[in-house]
Amino acid sequence: MMTLSRWKVLLVVLATIFGALFTLPNLLPPDARDKLPGFVPQKALNLGLDLQGGSYLLYSVDTQALRNERLTNLTEDVRKTLTDGQIPFTDLGQVGGALSVRITDPGQVNKAQNALRNAVGAPLAGVAGGRDVTVNTAADQRLNIAFVPEAFDADAARAVDQSIEIIRRRIDQLGTREPNIVRQGKDRIVIEAAGESDPERLKTVVGQTAKLTFQMVDDSVTAQEAAAGRVPPGSELLPSTDGYAPAYVVKKRAEVTGEMLVDAQARFDQQTGHPIVQFRFNGQGARRFGDVSSQNIGRRFAIVLDKKIISAPVIQSAITGGSGQITGNFTEESANDLAILLRAGALPAPLKVEEQRTVGAELGADAVRAGGISAAVGLAGVAVFMVVMYGWLFGGISLLGLIVNGLMIIGLMSVTQATLTLPGIAGLILTLSVAVDANVLIYERMRDELRAGRSVIASMDAGFSRAMGTIMDANITHLLSAAILFGFGAGPVKGFAWTLSIGVLTTVFSAVLVTQVLLAWWFRATRPKFLPIA
Q1: Where is 197: in which H helix or E strand?
Q2: pLDDT in tens, 327-371
Q3: Are 386 and 488 contacting, i.e. CB atoms less than 8 angstroms apart?
Q4: Whole-angstrom Cα distance, residue 425 to residue 437?
Q5: How many CA atoms lie within 13 A of 397 on its CB side?
Q6: d(CA 312, CA 246)
Q7: pTM of the shown model
Q8: The three-state (H, E, C) secondary structure of 333-399, written as one string
Q9: Of 95, 154, 203, 441, which residue is the least packed, with the fewest Cβ within 10 Å?
Q10: Which helix (DSSP H) or strand (DSSP E) does residue 213 occupy?
């Protein structure tokens, strides 16, 4: 164990250089980091919300709106299926959370039932019949169409997961680093955006559903007639913000949706100089957009964002290139925000703000200062203990290993861009405070071997070899505990667990390998007849 192997020396030297290089940016102000040479790392620790300040938002997913949307879409699917099948029907509408439709021809009830069972709904595992929609007959030639209960539960769970991913993409495009976005309970989402001091803009970008659809304008009635209650079946009256008309009547069925977009960028109109949003469809969207535009030349189509029409241009010619632009009363910032929303995708359901907080940077600075003082006091106490118990040589070597340990922890956290929170500082202090436990075990074993009459080299070798089992047992236990905290915890708990996990790995390395190399150097240089810790 006390052999001074080259690979051990090389590993200790490289680990020390690595830790020093990646810790250096944390000791410099931002302007000094920017002036560092290209080969020097420039990433500093990523401070969390409680240390850096920022915005905290708690959202709940509006699952009722999601249910209503599913029922509306199901209504249109039933209408289209029966119309395409040339099955006469009447009284199609929602009744108590389900749909009811009356087939006017008694001889086509079974045909209608079979057609709907095959056409509407979607496959759903674990449900009798294999689909998320049931179609049952009732009195007076009626069919009742309803979602199974498991369908809405699956929709709600899927909506929360999709919302978290979409929110993350939106915040990333704002330039906010490492936002903490986690599920809370069944249908809530917590957002912690460190460094984002404008919660209102964050709410605008995060909370907007951003569901984009392209729907044909229904010219069979005017907006005034629709407002008076004469809305044709399959159409709806939507407000407009295009500056030309307060509202339009549009077909409910979306010809093209925002899910078919592959890119959206804020640009300026070359003729007017006003901000616009240019978009581009995927192959499916380009084909559908081309078909719709070629079949409806001279008619208006509406670009609808969250049930509000932002533009309703007249189709002048077939648009087959798969790209276009959205004009409206945009500012440069609003056009950029809309492009971000379209690129990130639409939320599957609306979000409601349940709680909003802004954390000032002053609180974080106080926490960092207090953490630094705590760490300094703790390290001073450890240094005094080790020097008193094991002398300047062995105690000093333990402290050198502790310094390398600290450099490696900060360096690894900087490389991985792990978010350091206040509990993370507590984990860091705890790790450094107990890091010398392994040295204590090694040194005490050396003392026991010396008392038993062993030689200096045999005692040193036994100190490392026979203490390793206990050291590994203790640190593996710590690592498993940290893994459990990381797996089941959230937010600050994960920050504590991550710091603790890194600390366990670096502690074993520094307390064993660094100490072993330094003691081997000392032994080779001095060839002592006794150990100073005896």
Answers
A1: none
A2: 777 888 888 888 888 887 778 888 888 888 877 666 666 767 777
A3: no
A4: 20
A5: 25
A6: 11
A7: 0.60
A8: HHHHHHHHHHHHCCCCCCEEEEEEEEECHHHHHHHHHHHHHHHHHHHHHHHHHHHHHHHHHHHHHHH
A9: 95
A10: strand 212-216
